[in-house]
Structures are given as C-alpha cells and as structure tokens.
Amino acid sequence: MIYADGHLFLLQTAGTSYMFRKLDSGHLEHIHYGGSLFSKERVKKAMESGKCEEVTELGKEGIEKVADAVAPKHFFGGGNMNVYSDEFSGVFLEQLNLEMSSFGKGDIREPFVELTYADGSKTVDFTFENFEVKKGKAMLETLPSSYEADEQLFIVLKDKQYNVRLMLIYSVFESIDVITRSAIVYNDSDKAVVIDRLLSTQIDFNRPAYKMTSFHGRWANEMGKHESVCTGGKVVCEELNAGESGSRSNPFVIVSDIDADDEHGECYGFNLIYSGDHYEALSSNGVNMSRFVCGIQPNSFSWLLGPGDSFETPEAVMTFSGRGMNAMSINMHEFVRKHVVRGTWRDKERPILINSWEAAYFNFTQGSLVALAKEAKKCGIELFVMDDGWFGVRNDDKRSLGDWYENKKKLPGGIQELADKITNLGMMFGIWVEPEMVNEDSDLYRAHPDWAVQIPGKPHSKGRNQMNLDLTRTEVQDYVIESMKRVFSAGKVSYVKWDMNRIFSDRFSASLGERRQGEFMHRYYLGLYRIMKELTQSFPDILFEGCSAGGNRFDLGILCYFPQIWGSDDTDAMCRLDIQRGYSYGYPASTVGAHVSACPNHQTLNNSPLETRYEIACAGCFGYELNLCDLSESDKKVIAEQVEFYKNWREVFQFGDYYRLPDYGYIIVSRDKKKAVSFVVERNSKPNNDYRCLKTVGLAEDKVYNMRNRVVPLSVKEFGSLVNTMVPVHVKQDGLLHTIIDRVVNVSSEEQKVTATGAAFNNHGVALNPSFSGTGYNQDTRIMRTEDVRLYVFEEA
To answer: Is 569 a catalytic residue?
Structure first.
C-alpha cells in the first residue's frame, strides 16, 4: 500500500511503515523505516479500502502531520560541513538521512552510486524529477527478481549537470512486512559513462549504534553466526573476489538493537537476489547516524554504459520486526517461499531421496546403482539420485567435465536404461551435472580451449582440477543449454542436482574489450541466469537443486530458478546443527537440502547415533547419502521407520513457521497452528542435571495440544557394564552373552505424553521426563547423552 503525492511518500505494510519526502532542494530525505506509524486497526481498514490515506483519521493531513512529527529537524550544519549549494544554503547532505547518496556535494559517507562521466568528473548530483505508482509487480529485465507484489513505486532522479537518470524502484508486499528495492541508471547523453558503483538499497538511521549479524565460514563450514556492534566506523559483510555469493560471507544480514535476540528487540533483515560478489556495510558517522547499504560488490566491478543504454541492479529485500529475530525470520521465510521460489515445486512437498555420492563416489556400475535403489525402495525412499561419475571417462575429478555423454562402461544402456530401471521400481530418477565447468582433459576443452575462463598466454589457477566456462559468451551459453537439454531428455529425469565446485580466478573474457573486463563477473551471471531460465522453463516438472561445493552459492538468485539448495558438503550431524541453524535466520527449511550420511562421517570421522543424524536432517529437504546395501537389517528397519515418520510430518517440517529455541532447539508450527514439531539436543551431558523444560513459541494459545515424543529403539549395549546391575550373572561388556541379551531384550526410549493449552506450552513450557543421572533407571527415564536428540510432536486435541 503506497501513498505518494510528489512531496511525501509512504510505503505501508501490515506492520511496518517506510516514509520519505522530497526536500525543496530535490533530495529525498528518509524519515522512517520500522514499526508502523499508524494503528493496526486503521492500517487494516486502509488495506481493505485500498486507500493508503485512510491509515489516519485525518487522511492525507494526518500522514503529513506524522511525517512532520517524526522527521529530524536541522537548522544549521556542523562547523566544517559543506553546504549543498548557494541556492539551498541550509542543506548539508552529511547530516541528512537520504534515500540515495553520492560523492561531490557534501555527503562523505558510504555512497549508493559512483559514476565517472566522460569529462572525468565523479561528482554526482541526482535530484527528484517525477514518480509513478503501479499495481502489481514489474519484473527486472536482465536479472531474476521477486514476483506478485501488491504495489510498486518508481522514483526518477536526474543529474543536474549531466543527462543521466537514476530510477529507484520500491515494491511492497503488504501481508508479510517486506519491501524490496532496486535501481536503474539510464544514460540519456551522447557520451559513455562508467558506473563504478551502483548499489541496491540504502537505509539511513537516526541512531549511532546498531548490531550487524552476518553469516560467515568456508567450504563445509557455512553460515556461522557472527555479531559486530558498530558505534563508529564501518562493519562490512562481503564476498570480495570469489565470484559467487559464497560460503565465506552469505548475502543475508541482520541489523538490530544491540541486545536483540530471537524473541526481543528491533530487527531488520536484508538480503540480495543475486549470486555474484556482494557487499553489505553498516557504518556510523560523527553526527550520531548510521547507514546501511547493500548491492553488487563495487571493488572488482565497473560497467561502461554507452549512450542510450541502461543498467539495473539486483533486487534487495528488506523486512522489519519489533519482536526479535524469530518474527523477522518468519517474514523472510514466507517471502522466499511465495515470492522468490516459483514453478511446479514451489508449494509441493519435496521427495525423500537417496544420493549415490557418499555411497559410491566415482566407483559404480549400473548394477550397483540399481541394487542401492532397490534397498532404498524397501525403506520407502522416493527418489534415487545418480551423482558425479556417469559421463565421459569420469573416474575421478581430473577429467571429462564438459563431455555430457554417458560412460557406456558404467551405463551400458545409457541414462535411458538406468532411468527405466529406477522408475520401474516405483521411484523417481535424478542426476548430477556440473555444466558451468570444464576439465583441461576433456573433449570440450580440446575443441574449444578459448571457452575456458583464462588470460590468453598466461598461467591459470585451477580449483578441483577444473576451469570455469566463459558464460559471458552466447555460444558457450548455447552449448550448455543444448547439452543439458539432451541429458534431461535422455530418460525420465525428475530431479537435477546442479553443482559448481570452484571459485573464480584470473577473470578474463576474450569477448570483452580491455575497457569492459570489469563487467566480466556480472555478465557471467547474466549468462547463467539465461541458461537457468531456459532450462527450468523447458523442464518445468524437474525438481532442480542448486549446489556449489555445498553452500558456496546459497542465495535468492539461485532460488529464483531452483527451489532448493544443498546446504553443505559437511554431513556431520553436529556440524549440520550449526549450519542449518545459520540458514534458518534468512531461508526457509523447504530450500535447504539435508541428508543422513554414514558414520564415521566422511568429512570429520565423528560418530553420531543414527537417530541424531536423522532428526537433525529432518529440518530440511530430507534424504540419505550412504550405502544402504552395507547396513544391517536392523539399521534398514530403523531407516524405514524414520522415512515413514518424516512422510507423516513432512508438510510441517518443510512449510511450517520455524522458530529457534534456546540451546540449539527449534519448533516448527503448521500454518494453521494445528500441528507442530519440536527438537531438543543434548550438546554437553552432565550427571545430576536431569531437569529440562521445553518452552515453545508459536503455538495458538487458545488451542489444546497433545504432545508426545518420538520413541526410538535403544540397545542394551549402550548401557555398557551397567547391565550387571540388572541381571543375576556377570556379563562381560560386549561379550557373547551381552550380544545375546541385546538381541532378545527390546529397549526403547521413554514415552512421554502431555496435554495442555498452547498458552501453557508457550508461557511456561513442559517439564520433560528426567534424564539419566547415574542414580537409577526406569522405562520413563530420558536417555540423553552428549549428541543425543529428541523430537516432540504437538497435535490439536
């Protein structure tokens, strides 16, 4: 819902207000972004009528009065501030909250835009020219963007000295408290202009101290949560030179009160619909103000904008909550589910899969794959995925990337025959590809060495023995599109895992002149997005999963084409607990791939109980990545029961409202509040510490719920020599008698059933059964050792 009269602008959602105004000088002064400036009742009435001026009893006059009340007041500038112009001698840009900033006229803070004009000048002076409000949502022309907004506001600014325009685009998603921003520069002059920096959003705050929460890591250790308080200077989250959104720094960040947590405090969530190098910065200046900006990483970027040309920035996503980070996350989750993810799989439950990678790596045959699929089918698994190693002469990672034809030694009947065998089992068939890469030892490289990203005649740095294909070139894009169309049409393919296993180095394209090499990375993603768009439109029923050495490209740009992304190549359960919790701040569970793998784990050599691996993987797009053929019958029986449980609760796990709980727990509540599933973990078990309270969030307080835990089998051997306290003869630990007792005596975890109101669960919590403390044991004792977990389900009575 938007109010705009050319002087005052209000973007109103159900719970937030975004307000700015045009000054006499033509600058746009930011007034407020945060909690609604108007009552919930008036906002609801205005939304029902479609007339934003009804947010107050006084109509337009009331909106103006609120703006006058909350806007900062300035009469004089600081002693060494620069005045904007002789005509507007009272305007000092350095002390104003602005919608858009640049260098040259007094604002010396972090700029939104930097241009170099043909005469060498870098002074940019954009002021208001006109505006337009439209219903619905116009898509960006060159970049993926969100869809189905309620309204859009277009603000056009013009440089006073040069014939260049800047358009600021705002989109309002009323019900979920999300606003997006992007920008377009138009060169209306007859000379080229160089864009040195053009970001996507800028928010100025009238406070000097905020906390920025960002998520950093590395391969197999993504999304570590980091908090930095900015009381002066600048805090930056960026992917500088990797050429992808990156595991080192995810583009999702939070700006909040210093003491904000999951349940308390004012929080702003920001993200970028883009897959390349990105930049997020929170700065605080000497006049008790803060500024947040985000967009394309300016460090390695430049764009030569010819006469008559335009350039558009990625769409930035913003949401606000005054009730802590959980509420902020739920806004962002709903936005991603309904306005970023699209197509056939947007609202469909994701199938349970088995992936061949950690089961076989490159060493498989058609027979071994079918054998694995048969075991998976017995367990109730729905989708079989053949991972790397099926094409060319791909027996290791040193060769054949780019050669997208079947290895007939492994697959004598090709993809078609294997797919038929899998689908005849009643399963879906999926396949792995890495289309953006090429090995030097490949038919493709031998035929087209110039298609690889490298500086001609200079040595090249490789990653995982491979090179990036130059997707800035149309002929390379066409090759990828046609190759993938052949692969996806070779058999009944229902799922594609799209990998990308290295960062960029030695960026160069022979198709770009020497003045345009700074455009390489952005043009690469324009090419990739063209490929992804054409393939997903040609194969609308395929479930695509993005992957970039795990979570190295986990971003909203990829999610515009692929409904889910592999969360991390690290499948260690306790590592995944941290990684998936990090994702939960900005991304819904329906977008995060999470699998149960073998132990000792292939990345850490740690051992975790099968149930722990399962319950941690449940909070995502669930599957298995181990060799079922090698498991015991008892383990396969447990897996079949796990699969059945997940199917019964899949909709809640994947599409419910996700709330983080203390001590790395969570609760996911169905949208209708009738069901919920909660998770608790014991990270550091200690004796005589048997009391634990599960306090929920998000249950309907006026509903009555039945709560029960997931009962899981235990082994007598897990009690070790304590078995001797319960039997009349001595039993040697792990001896023959101990093994016999374990086979004939069935032991399971406690079963706890509770009925209470949602209010009781939310406001006090339920006391869980006491845990084992070394002083006694009965069938109601909760066995929770270090790394043990427990799921609790809630159903409306």
So the answer is: yes
